[in-house]
Amino acid sequence: MTEIQPKSKLRTEAAGLYYGSYHALTDITLDIPACSITAIIGPSGCGKSSLLRLFNRTNDLVPGARVEGKICLDDVSIYEKDIDVITLRERVGMVFQKPNIFPMSIYDNVVFGPRHHGIRNRSVLMETARRSLSQVAMWDDVKDNLKKSGFELSPGEQQRLCIARALAMEPEVLLMDESCSALDPASTMKIEELMLELAKKYTIIIVTHNMEQAVRISDMAAFMMIGDDHVGTLIEYGTTEQIFSRPQDKRTLDYITGRFG
To answer: Which of 2, 167, 227, 247 to pair with 200, CA 20 to 30 A apart?
Structure first.
């Protein structure tokens, strides 16, 4: 596992989320270290993905969404009116559950973001493709077939291509929402190895139902549940070793041992 750095990269203070009148999250307080892997775990419907989307304001795209409390990146509140959301999403990239390959070549998938932001220099774009695909251990395999459609890759390769596309924007944080759930065990292992390597440079936050995965790769773990008020809440947060071996809340222990979920 990666060595946890003391500096906080992301921080929430009593964060809450509403979708219209529906109260999705309440009183979420977290301090996520830089250059680490944090796993968000808990039963379906407890708000794990909603919490993840708070960090790059993807919830803004949902009509009626409203955020309470404070969410900070490098101690700067990201929900202030003067925050450029486009710039924020460049700094905080996201990879989804299923590979969302664009209907274009491997090369065009990777450089889509830089092109969208005005980079046209071919040598710069090629270097971006080389760097990003090398980071996900794909360059040697595809460098002679960059014009091939991304849809021709295996599901595991497609997910790595999506990660490469996110890395092309040189983010500081990478959000991964169940990014291995649709993959076979071999592909999952490759993605996990990739995450461990990337965490030397990036702050990674994953949502996962796979307890073994959380134990294998994460440094920190946040356990969430639906509270008595039917709102997603944070039950416990700490190092993964502490959460899985010495949980402070019985609900955490019950979930981990399979009594819940």
So the answer is: 247
Give the residue ranges of DSSP H helices in the chain. Answer: 48-54, 85-91, 106-110, 112-116, 122-135, 139-142, 155-167, 185-198, 211-217, 240-245, 250-256
Amino acid letter, residue 104 = M
C-alpha torsion sign, points 64, 26, 171, 140: negative
69-116 tens-digit pLDDT: 999 999 999 999 999 999 999 999 999 888 899 999 999 999 999 998
Are 70 and 14 in contact by the 8 Å Cβ rule? The answer is yes
The secondary structure of 133-156 as a DSSP string is HHHTT-HHHHTT-TTSBGGGS-HH
Question: In whole angstroms, what is the distance from residue 237 CA to residue 29 CA?
Answer: 9
pLDDT value of position 229: 83
